Amino acid sequence: MSTESGELDCQRMASICARKDQLIQNPSELDDQEVYYSPHSIDKQFYINISDVFLLKQSSDRCTYKRPLKTIESYADYYEHKIPNIRIERDLVMSTMKPAGKPRINYLKDSIAKKESRPSSTKLDYFPVEVLRYAPLNQTDFELIYKLPSIFIRISQLYRIVQLGKRFADNIQSCSVQSKILKI
Questions:
Q1: Domains: count for the chain
Q2: Is residue 2 assigned to a domain?
Q3: For residue 46, how far is the Cα from the chain centroid?
Q4: Average pLDDT over the chain, rounded to whole?
Q5: How far, in Å, CA of 19 to CA of 40, rounded?
Q6: In this predicted model, what pLDDT tens digit does every residue of 119-136 receive, in sequence order?
Q7: CATH number for 49
Q8: What is the C-alpha to C-alpha distance for residues 135 and 21, in angstroms, rounded to an integer?
């Protein structure tokens, strides 16, 4: 959230705030560095886009979700039944999303780890772009905010260690002074 000179990047923060909750209009707007959510989702999960051409599905493809009605054949039918007053374009590509999990914290290495080319063990979800919105932050900020509690805990632990070290040092000095007095 800061520039290279260490100042707050107000322009970037303003653009993120301006687009918060904005609907995605076209699959070309999806970016792998952003975080998205579906306001119609029950679990209120944040998602990250996966741009892998091998994982793409069309809105008109046969739905693999549990279908509440036998008349629901495609993903577009499923979402139009699930969400009232929405029209899903059947010729558009759906977005391939993975849940934005808790980032792995390793303070000894750079926080931006090598990205996998294809997610192997992660459950993927498919959404028409009409049901997606921008989350209030991007992936980098999401990771930074997630790390804050851990950083505060580590700082408080370091503070306690320093205090303990000072107490040991004070007690060792007083013990050594007392032993010198006893020797005299």
A1: 1
A2: no
A3: 7
A4: 78
A5: 18
A6: 455 688 888 888 898 888
A7: 2.170.260
A8: 6
